[in-house]
Amino acid sequence: MLFTTDKQTQENLNIFGKQGMDSVLSLFNRTATNNGAKILEEMFQNPLSNAEAINKRIGVISYLSTVKAVFPFSAEMFDQAEQYLSNTDERTKLSAEKPTLEKKLSNLVAASADQKQIVNGINAIIEIIHELSGLLKNILLLTGSPLNNDPETINIGKLLITEPISLLLQEKPKNKRSKEILSAYDVMLRFSYRETIWQILRYIYHMDVYITIARVAAERGFIFPKALAKEENSIRIEGFYHPQLKNAVANTLTTGADSNVIFLTGANMAGKSTFMKSFGIAMYLAHMGFPVAAKQMEFSVLDGIFTTINLPDNLGIGASHFYAEVLRLKKIAKELSTGKKIFVIFDELFRGTNVKDAYEATIAVTTAFARKLGSVFVISTHIIEAGEILKERCANISFQYLPTRMKGTIPEYTYTLETGITDDRHGMIIINNEGILELLKKGKEIIK
Fold it and tell me: 236-273: per-residue pLDDT in tens?
């Protein structure tokens, strides 16, 4: 089953950001090659929903981080190799014959430019093969490497020691080669074994991604999560925080079949949205098989993630904020109705309607969510009265809050999760502290 998410979720969690700037992707987007960057973005677009596949990727990246693997190739090599391989015009094949004086004069400029590009491409591929051979021997296929059991890595290793690719390893990368040798290699690389060379390059681009992610994990102190079977219905995440915030406060959370709904309360500015985004980003990255900003994490694999944190009014169809919430809930309900196990975040559920409707709807929807024991829900709300009813109705709801400590008339926020329900409401205190009402009293009233 494919992992399901949507653009709204990716925007809420700032996975791609605006024009790729200041996004979760940008934290990792430091690949040496352009094609590596494309593969990285594809991985962000397509998280995994299989525990074995997730743990396999985690194992590879974790190993590369442990051995401090370095990507030994220069980006220029791949630019030259790709330009060379993209030219499939047989009329441009290198000739082993010496050109006549007349041919030299008539094709001097064009032939010189074409031949230089072809020779550079051949040399670049030879150098790439040498560097890859060293990477395989010294890092990827060492004893203890998880890549020892990876079919693709094993196949690439066999290609390098089998003719005709093995002939390239007999060449010294920086040597000048005769026209006869260059002509033979041109036919081999660009025409006879072109797809084989592309296969090798694609493998290297994936290694570029994995080595880059491993380096980022080491530099930022991210940890590698462990994926559990869906049937375990468990998430244990210790010391997780928002990876894009400086001095972020860490939190710890456990969910299970007896606590698959988190009912979150707290005053405005207490950190509810940041907490939910932090949790959502950790779950998103974990399903990619990537490192996360935490101390430790184990999680049962789910089928998708849907968040509703910054929900815009859908003015295009004349929808109010409340109706936009209803449509969002309907979409999530449809996903749940198919039997999928999904991770759902809803920030301030039903904020777009009156208090009475919000109270009744919060109880009804949260109760319905609680029956979906294989899924995980995080619901924040200011309708704390609903919490007392839900305590009586549902034994599998975990009540959590982010507290506010008052220092005189100044609210202070710990951003640290505690168990229970809070009735903290400090909106008027903040308004008074800012002197807004006093400002409004100043000036002359205009009487009409």
Answer: 999 999 999 999 999 999 999 999 999 999 988 889 99
Pick the CATH number of 31-220 from 3.40.50, 3.80.10, 1.10.3110, 1.10.1420: 1.10.1420
**pTM, 2 dp:** 0.92
Could you tell me the residue ranges of all domains in the chain? 31-220, 226-441
Token look-up 């990827």 returns: 140
Calculate the CA dihedral of residues 103, 104, 108, 111 and round it to 10 degrees. 70
Non-local (6+) Cβ contacts of 258 within 8 A are: 395, 396
Distances (CA, A) of 330 to 5, 110, 119, 441: 15, 63, 60, 46
The residue among 290, 127, 103 whose CA lies nearest residue 201 is 127
Q: Which CATH number fits domain 226-441: 3.20.20.190, 3.90.960.10, 3.40.190.10, 3.40.50.300?
A: 3.40.50.300
Q: Evaluate whether 346 touches 308 at the Cβ level (below 8 Å).
A: yes
Q: Among 235, 368, 358, 352, which residue's Cα sits nearest to residue 305?
A: 235
The answer to whether the beta carbons of residues 249 and 241 sit under 8 Å apart is: yes
The whole-number pLDDT of residue 429 equals 65
Nearest to 156 by CA among 132, 125, 178, 189: 132
Average pLDDT of span 140-166: 96
Higher-pLDDT residue of 403, 431: 403
